[in-house]
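The records we work with from here on pair a chain with its fold. A complete example follows; check for yourself that the lines match position by position.
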Amino acid sequence: EDAEGAADAAADAAVRAGQLPKEDDGVSCLLLRLPRGWGPPRLQAFIERFGAKPASVSKNAGEGNGLVKFESAEHRSIFYSSFVQAEQGGSSTGSSGQFQVKFPGGTSAAAVKSGVKRPADEGAAGPAAAGGGGVEGGAAGSRKRQAKQLKSDIREVVCPWWDRPYADQLQDKMTVVNNTLRALAEKVAYSYGRDEKPGWLTAALHRPSKQALLLPGIIRSPQLNGYRNKAEFTIGLDAQERPTAGFLMGNYVDGVTQVADPSQCRHIS
């Protein structure tokens, strides 16, 4: 109940600020309890991992909430249903199921998903399946969620694009930056309201892309492997309880202490 109340309060604040529509438009949602270090690019990459396409993403580093507007209602539904399945399977992003999704429209139309809850009908997907379910209690339930959360390959944790073709990575990165530039123009325009806007902003709003500036492209790196010659490692036990120096298999703040050898990570020299 506390989590749902906090979600309602955050949604109400976003509505009052004009960031979230009062009635559900079918494409907007509010994500809560995100890592505070995330900015728009990291949040967008997280959303796109579920196969959904956001039209704009807004999140300030240091804050735990993010606003997302999808390209269509279908993409919002894809994200939500995939998010629920990932939380049930423990394959989200190391959040221990703490992310929450809130849709606009008030209590009757709101849908909140917390990782410690399960939809009443596990076979359903999408906003209709967002009702609360049982809570896994006690230390055993916590250990079970953590065990599900852990990935088996350290590359999926440290460098999740490791097996993605580099050309596709560049395109994805350019999409993230373009969306961020569009969100920047929209946010600054909102802050001006009906006041006269500076020339660069007026020009941006008249562009088809609505971007703060046009991005000519992303420069291809001359070196794809072994480019990082400085890294910080954690010392702990691996999956076989052996002392290991490497990377954590998840977030320490979520109780993950398992360490994996970093030698397979392509970016480490």
